[in-house]
Amino acid sequence: MPRAFLAACTAALLTGLIAGAQAPAPFDLVIRNGSIVDGTGSPWYRGDLAVRGDAIARIAPRIDAPAARVIDAIGKVVAPGFIDLHTHARRGIFQVPTADNYVRQGVTTLIEGPDGSSPLPIKPFLERIAATRITPNFGLFVGQGSIRTEVIGSVNRKATEAEIEKMRGMVRQGMHDGALGLSSGLFYVPGTFTPTVEVIELAKVAGQMGGIYISHMRDEAGGVLNSVRETIEIGEKGGLPTQVTHHKIIGTANWGKSVETLRLIDEARARGVDATIDQYPYTASSTSIQAALMPAYALEGGRDEILKRLQNQSLRNELKKETARLIAEERGGGNPNNVQLARCDWDHSLDGKRLGDVTRARGVEPTVDNAADTVFWIVENGGCSGIFHAIDEQDLQRILRHPATMIGSDGEVPIFGEANPHPRSYGTFVRVLGRYVRDLKTITLEDAVHKMSAFPAQRIGLADRGVLREGLKADIAIFDPATVADRATFEQPHQYAVGVAQVIVNGQVVFEDGKMTAARPGRVLFGPAARARSN
Ligand SMILES: [Zn+2]
Known about the structure:
- This protein is an alpha/beta fold.
- It has helices at residues 3-22, 100-103, 122-132, 144-152, 161-176, 196-208, 224-238, 258-270, 289-293, 303-311, 313-329, 355-361, 368-381, 393-401, 424-439, 445-452, 454-459, 528-534; strands at 29-36, 45-52, 55-60, 70-72, 77-80, 82-84, 107-112, 137-140, 142-143, 181-185, 212-216, 242-244, 275-279, 285-288, 339-343, 385-388, 405-407, 476-479, 500-505, 508-512, 515-516.
- The strands form 4 sheets. Strands 1, 2, 3, 4, 5, 18, 19, 20 and 21 form a 9-stranded mixed sheet that branches.
- The protein starts with a helix and ends with a helix.
- It binds zinc ion.
């Protein structure tokens, strides 16, 4: 070996030893001068944060050690990446594995399988996610509705004991394969046909395996109080944490009832039931036109059965009364123009149009009754998804302020520019930070970040994420609190968030300077039963 080389090595070794006495090995990334909002709800503090590999290596008032990369975050907030407990991201994640609409808001973890609807079995689905190389992390609930459909079909009857045993087995398998818990959508077919006791039987299995229960409730309008009671009962008798998902109060006649729903949650918590809430910050909801504006009994058995019922004139007249009532008193918000079509695959020129305007274009006055006919016309032509402006701002803010409420989008991964989706997919998290923290001061910045990071992480047992602390995974959102905002509107939803400077997933910068980077470091985050096995 040449002498010069040896000498160089010795010199390097000596330098290393001397440097090593004071500082650890260089960092991959240091974020300097930021206002650290750590996710716990504690007041922000000024500090530097260093990343090595996929983890937070150090947090200190000042970090001068060498780093491969330095981000100056002066004037900006450095927060844990946001965790979205309620997404329908399988709509789009395979076409847009970078999930730009979410990542540009600072979201670093997407959780799928809400509303009782999940892929089954979940194992091949999670393998496909892993093989796709997506940008954010990804987790999954197993869905009660999907399980019931597979075992019983979309039929309105009780399950037999043998069927319940089979469904229990499917929940067990889902948990074993990595689910975070059991979701239900008791508003939808077939959840709506499920007696409470049957849900409790399945919830017990998820609970025994460390999972939680999360529910799109049976009724978010006139029956919302009983639905909250049912959600609490399922947690209480099922022996597991329970969550009212996308909590809202639908229909003008019901506005204000959040005072009572929150009291029910408080009372449950006071007697030891671990009941929580998530919410998106918009006064409109979104689901299919038929689920929102037709009674459940009309939807039993699937599309062919629905069409048969609409062909029966006396049944059609009966259904029309019920659909008119749903427009007048519930999701329709009292006016056909409070219903907006989001996506109609059989005629995309309808995307974004209002139900009243579509009714007028069909040559009749946009009355509630005529709009009910338009609903049937839509369903007969193949159906649409819709947006329903029927939520009160006061209820929204009251729910947001509640300490048991976290943030979840209920969004999806849109194809940019396609259809007219609910803006929540593009704006939920930054809307809370912009409109509700900065502009309206409904909650503090620290509370908001907590509701988006540590709180949901703790809810699903992600002990290694959701807080900025040494040793935890480096999922980080850096944003300007003065400019962070949503741009997506109900009229023009395809607009990305603004004010987010950098987003980091598992230690890698995935978004900066207004652009997604090439890194796609997202991981599948397995639930408690699968984690326990791998330890
Ligand atoms: Zn839902």
